[in-house]
Amino acid sequence: MSSANNENIQLARTAQVHILTAGYVRRGGDGTRVASTVAYVRDGAIRLIVDPGMVAHRDDILGPLASLGESQGSITDVVISHHHPDHTLHTALFPNARVHDFQAIYKDDSWIDQPAEGFHLSPAIQLIATPGHTPQDITTLAGTPNDIVAFTHLWWMASGPADDPYSHDPAELHANRERVLRLATLIVPGHGEPFRPGPETPR
């Protein structure tokens, strides 16, 4: 097990991480085009999808997933970082999955109260509460052989934005960015490609 900096977070380094589709936010002829970054994480028996939200076509999620040998039915868990539709729209693609948010685990007609902070889906996958973009935001941490990966909407993309125009509490957002930067070596933002934080990363 490996301790992530000064916080008492213990993660095995056994997870495998794959980006199924990298998200974006851009203007199009008919308005704003937006897609969520959707990821697949495997650790032991856990088959996890993070943020199965808006994409141009659902095959942008299912095609890369199939190439990894997984089907819709084989996914055991879904994590939604927050409740905006661009991050939740395709949750129902995975009928056998438990769904995790900031406050509970949902499956069929079962609602089990479970705060996200500190919850382990597996030895290598842990949820933490990171409000800032919304009051309900959570970050998924995954320990791989080479990195602690953070799937988070504290950043839309590598460039930030430095100040989230939709943040409910900018001070909280900046504080949680600092928290995640102390823990993670690779960031998977809400609407962009993974990036390694550096001096230019918005705090």
Give an account of the 3D structure:
This protein has helices at residues 59-67, 170-183, and strands at residues 2-3, 10-11, 16-21, 24-28, 31-35, 38-43, 46-50, 77-79, 98-100, 104-107, 110-113, 120-122, 125-129, 138-143, 148-151, 186-188. It is mostly beta strands and 203 residues long. The strands form 4 sheets. The chain has a 7-stranded mixed β-sheet, with helices on one face. The longest helix has 14 residues, at 170-183.
Short note summarizing the structure:
This protein is mostly beta strands. A seven-stranded mixed beta sheet has the order 3-6-7-8-9-10-11, with helices on one face. A five-stranded mixed beta sheet has the order 12-13-14-15-16, with no helix packed on it. It has helices at residues 59-67, 170-183, and strands at 2-3, 10-11, 16-21, 24-28, 31-35, 38-43, 46-50, 77-79, 98-100, 104-107, 110-113, 120-122, 125-129, 138-143, 148-151, 186-188.
